[in-house]
C-alpha cells in the first residue's frame, strides 16, 4: 500500500510540475504585463485540460515564488516579477525547462560575478580545516571526472559551492546554490565535449591553493578571471544567435 501511495504522490507531483511549466510558458508567450489579470481558474483548467484541484496546486506554487497573486473575488494577477519575484522563481523556471530571457541571463551572470568574487576573498579569511577538506574533495572529484571522460558540470558546481560554504555564511551559500541550479542544463552543454574541463580544473586548483594560503587578493583575482572567460563565451553565444536569445537561454554556463 505504501508503494501505491508513493506512486500516487509522485504522479501528482509530476502533474503539478507539468502544469506549472505550461502556465509559465503560456504567460511568457502571451506577453502578459505586470499587474495584468490572467484567465480565471476555470478558463486555465479548460485550456490545459487539468482538473481544478491540480490547477489550484500549480497556482499555489506560482504564488509561493511570487510570480502571481490571487486576489479574493478579483482573480489571478501577474506580479512584477522583476521587482517582487523570488530567486526561486528563476530556479523553478530552469527546472521546468522554461528559458530565461537574454536579459535575465546577463543579470544573473553579473550578480554571480559580484557575489562569487567577494565570497572567494571572504572564504580566505574564514576557511577552516573542514572547509579545506571539502575544497580538496571537490578538486579530487574533478580529477576523477576528467580521467573518466565525464561531464565536468557537477564537479564544477561542487567546487564553487565548497568555496561558498567556506565563507561561513549560510544565506550566501543558498544564493550561490541557486545560481548553479539555474545554470545546470547550460553548464552540462558547456562542458559536453570535454575541451573546457582541464582548464577549469586548473583554475579551480589555483584558487584552492590561494584560499589555503589565505591570499584573498590572489584568490579573488583568480575567481574574477575564471568567471570572465565563461562570461565571454556565453555573451558570444547570445550575440551569435540573436533571434533565438529569448528561447534558447535556459541558464548560464559556469
Structure overview:
With 254 residues, this protein is mainly alpha-helical. Helix content is 72%, strand content 3%. A hairpin with a 3-residue loop joins strand 1 (68-71) and strand 2 (75-78). The protein is elongated and about 60 Å long. The termini are far apart. Residues 242-254 have low confidence and may be disordered.
Describe the secondary-structure layout.
Blueprint: H1 2-30, H2 41-48, H3 52-64, E1 68-71, E2 75-78, H4 81-84, H5 87-95, H6 102-126, H7 129-148, H8 153-165, H9 170-182, H10 184-190, H11 197-212, H12 216-240
Antiparallel strand pairs: 1-2
Helix pairs in contact: 1-3, 5-9, 6-8, 6-12, 7-8, 7-11, 8-9, 8-11, 11-12
| Beta-strand content | under 5%
User: From the helix content, strand content and strand pairing, which structural class follows?
Assistant: mainly alpha
Largest sheet entry = 2 strands, antiparallel
Cα-atom radius of gyration? 21 Å
Shape: elongated
Query: What is the strand tally?
Result: 2
SSE run: HHHEEHHHHHHHHH
**Helix share of residues?**
over 70%
Q: How many H/I helical runs?
A: 12
Mean pLDDT: 85
How far from one another are the termini? 44 Å
Strand order of the largest sheet: 1-2
Low-confidence runs of at least 5 consecutive residues: 242-254
